[in-house]
Structure formats: C-alpha cells, structure tokens
Specification:
The protein is mainly alpha-helical. It folds into 2 domains: 1-62, no CATH class; 67-166, no CATH class. Helix content is 76%, strand content 0%. The protein has helices spanning 2-32, 40-61, 74-103, 108-118, 121-148, 150-158. The chain is globular and about 55 Å long.
Length: 173
Amino acid sequence: MGVLKHELVEMLPPTIFFFVVFHLVAFARALLDAQYGISVVSATAATIGALVVGKAILLADKLPVMHWFRDRRLIYNVLWRIAVYVVLVLLLQCLEELIPLLFRGAGIAAGSEQLFAEIAWRKFWATHVVLVVFLVFYCLATAVIDVFGRDRVLGVFFGPGYGRAVSAADWQC
C-alpha cells in the first residue's frame, strides 16, 4: 500500500498542473469552435487527459533517455526534456484525433488519410502551441524545484510559513 500512496503523491503535482492546462485548452478550443462554454464531454476529456499525462510524465521521467543530460548544465537537461515532451505531445494529439476515426470503423491507414484530410489544422496547431508553452513552464518549474528544493521555493513565493525562509545569500551561486 505504501508504494501506491507514494505513486499517487508523486502524480499529484503534474496531474493538477495539467488538469488546469487541459481545461484551459478545452475552453480555448470551445471558443475556436464558436461555442461559449465547455461541454461535459470536453471537461471529462480534459480531466482524463490530465490524469494520463500526469502518469505519463512520471513514467517518462523514469526512462534512461530522460537523464542523458543529467550531468551537464541544467539548461541542457531542461531543453532535452522539453524536446522529448513536445514530440510526445504531438504524437498524443495525433492519436487523440485518430481514435474517433478508428471507432467509426476506419482502419489505421484509412483513418490516417481521413484525419489528414479533415483535421482543422489551425485548431490543432493552436492547441499544440498552448501545450508547448505550458510544457516549457512545467519543465522550468520542476527544474527549479529540483535544484533549490520544494521548501525553499515555497518559502520564496509564500513566505516563511511555507518552508525555510530564503535570504538573498541563498540565491548566490
């Protein structure tokens, strides 16, 4: 039971972060589709997407490929993680568009053809850009937290009651 609790606690930060992000994306897509609200279906899809991405990030972070630049300057590791996540998000977005076509009875080849013929490219790329911006923010935030520690970062943002108080001397390298 301890392992399950540990996994759930580890999964909370990325899941909550991407819960907010995916709901923002669902809202933006609704506006792009000239709707003025979010349907229950898109809110549910955003919530499920956040849960999947939260777990996928934890799994991806355990892969050896994610740690190729761990011993180099932090910027290399952050840029590498961003690049890997961007490619994964692109693949998942294509899969998200392809799955409904597969359920309609089209095979993978026919579904792919139909996907590329019918996809709303502006909406697809707008969604991708928004997700990439938030992925960059997520990777930068997690890198800062990894370097300085959770308590110090919370102390900087919320004051001494949320971790150790941080002085200007703490930020000198």
